Amino acid sequence: MESEIMAPYETKQNCEIRVFESSDEMATDLAEFISQASEISVKERGYFAIALSGGPLVRHMRKLCEAPYNKTLDWSKWYIFWAEERAVAKNHAESNYKLAKEEFISKVPIPNGHVYSINDNATVEEAATDYEFVIRQLVKVQRVGVSKINDCPKFDLILLNIGPDGHVASLFPDHPALEVKNDWVTYITDSPEPPPERITFTLPVINSASNIAIVATGEDRANAVSFSISDCQEGPDAKTIPAGMVQPTDGKLVWFLDEAAASSLEAANGAYEHQGY
């Protein structure tokens, strides 16, 4: 049975926490969440701009490839981006594009021209510049929205993983990339996880999204999840780890957690209430 952890006090951000007993329950709820975001965006804007991350996240999207979503969603209105990508060839085992293609994109009728992978023939610096240029062009023609607060692109949904160290996208703890404010896409050449060269959305772009979902599974993420959600409750001045710096300026943040990833929440806060829905 799916349960939601409700904080006993009001948070400063529009932050929701969902905890699941099984991977299948998580995938089912995540599919419904994405579906609703898609339907609302298509109705309001005519398009749905979604940014994916690497790691296991795409596998949690598997229910979208099944009924009813594979038939009911307006896939022709989807535009797919990557919030992070490794600077490797598209057919490389560590390519986020390759994983998304195999696990999701190839199984639903999204037009090929609506899938925006990075230029894997360029240097990582050039690839980041090129990717930002592509996004800027799509903002001009309104395929991607724009924030009224800071003129950043306003993606309809950004999906993120969280690492055991609390990193999201390719924004790692204490890395200079966390401080980039003026660029939409930046690059790193010294990732603490292989491969070292990556591009990533910057924090202002992530926080400008209409919806952000962070998926976490496993006990090795539990402490990072607990610290991050504490930051969310304390507001934008609390900056211990990158995931805690994900605080939407005008949008909604939802955490999708298995019980292992959520295990430190009750230990840290004691008074969380579980209620099914």
UniProtKB/TrEMBL annotation:
GO terms for molecular function: 6-phosphogluconolactonase activity. This is Probable 6-phosphogluconolactonase. It catalyses: 6-phospho-D-glucono-1,5-lactone + H2O = 6-phospho-D-gluconate + H(+). GO terms for biological process: carbohydrate metabolic process; pentose-phosphate shunt, oxidative branch. Keywords: Hydrolase. One of its GO terms (cellular component) is cytosol. Transmembrane segments: none annotated. It comes from the Eukaryota. Pathway: Carbohydrate degradation; pentose phosphate pathway; D-ribulose 5-phosphate from D-glucose 6-phosphate (oxidative stage): step 2/3. Belongs to the glucosamine/galactosamine-6-phosphate isomerase family. 6-phosphogluconolactonase subfamily.
